[in-house]
Amino acid sequence: MQRIGVLTSGGDAPGMNAAIRAVVRKAVYHGIEVIGIKRGFAGFIEADMDPMHVGSVADIIHRGGTVLRTARSEEFTTRPGRASAFENVERFRLQGLVVIGGEGSFEGARMFHLEFGLPVVCIPGTIDNDIPGTENAIGFDTAVNNAVEAINKIRDTATSHERLFIVEVMGRNSGFIALEAGLAGGAESILIPELPFRVEDVCDRLMRGYRRGKLHSVIVVAEGAGSGIEIGREIKKITGFDTKVTVLGHLQRGGTPTAMDRVLGSRLGALAVELLMDGAKKLAVGVRHGRVGSWDLEECLQGKKLIDLQTYELAGILSI
Ligand code: F6P
Predict the structure, then answer these.
(1) pTM of the model
(2) List 128, 130, 141, 261, catalytic entry
(3) In a mutational test of the pocket of ligand 1, which residue from 140, 142, 172 has the highest number of ligand atoms less than 8 Å from its CB?
(4) Domain 3-139+257-300, CATH class in plain words
């Protein structure tokens, strides 16, 4: 193997830079050239591609975002879009591709491999942590820590004013960020799309807490479970509590990656290069039972990743 490409795609995730750094340095270590593809599959189609060297990834391991930049490409979801990208595979003489991104990016890589045969290895990078085949994705740990930091701050003001705060966190259609941030932040209730809830029940629980002497509460809502603003409005109407809503939004996605995300990005990036060198065709790397490994890409995309019910129940028991 002489030359591979690397790209980041979909929403950026803190720790992607560590993964890019690992791909480039591991490849260079083995005498393989790396072409950095900018703006994900969009840059792949447009030949927005440049060679990367050891120095291209200097001083980036601590930075959030992705130095390769990223995009969500509609065009790559079409056959002609992917065919244009394949012209650039030939033009740049790529023999393998590392894709760092979420489920949509994995799916794009899968289609691309099936149609054109280019070996691909996908690295999970999404704050949502919703890729079925892996316990952890790069960026999740940082996003959870960002959310917890915000919840801590909100709790200070919630306590001082004896208020109810609703904190809406990201996660698209999944509740992984909400569950972990809610548990770590001591939230009174955690509302996630995977488990249906009634606002009336949330209010009953709140009232019970207040009757026992609670002076303030924090409820964490995953964006996929409903709008924090709407839920806050309903709760205020039912309980009459002074209710404030904070939507954390993209704050969760930015900032310096945690050590955990940097280590994960480094391990997965290096593993992706090793696998391409060993003749991988279409694999995804990830974490299972706490260990880094690789699995068939199709298998990693199957089904929907399930929330850990025991953790959810625990959060409920601990927050009474
Ligand atoms: O997939 C990551 C994510 O941050 C989701 O949690 C969120 O729903 C979405 O991306 C936001 O997308 P955008 O940055 O395009 O607004």
Answers:
(1) 0.98
(2) 128
(3) 172
(4) alpha beta
Mean pLDDT of 161-182: 97
Sheet of 96-101: strands edge to edge? 49-52, 33-37, 3-8, 96-101, 120-124, 282-288, 291-296
DSSP 250: G
- In the chain, the amino acid numbered 292 is V
Residue range(s) of every CATH 3.40.50.460 domain in the chain: 142-254
List every span in the chain annotated with CATH 3.40.50.450: 3-139+257-300
Residue 320 has pLDDT above 90, yes or no: no
Query: Domain spanning 142-254: which CATH class is it, in words?
Result: alpha beta
128 catalytically annotated: yes
- pLDDT value of residue 184: 98
Q: Is the dihedral of CA 179, 183, 185, 186 positive or negative?
A: positive
Q: Which residue from 72, 127, 142, 176 has its CB within 8 A of the most atoms of ligand 1, so it is best to mutate?
A: 127
pLDDT band at 269 (very low <50, low <70, confident <90, very high): very high
Confirm or reject: Cβ of 173 under 6 Å from ligand 1: no
Contact 145, 185 (CB under 8 A): no
d(CA 214, ligand 1 centre) in Å: 34
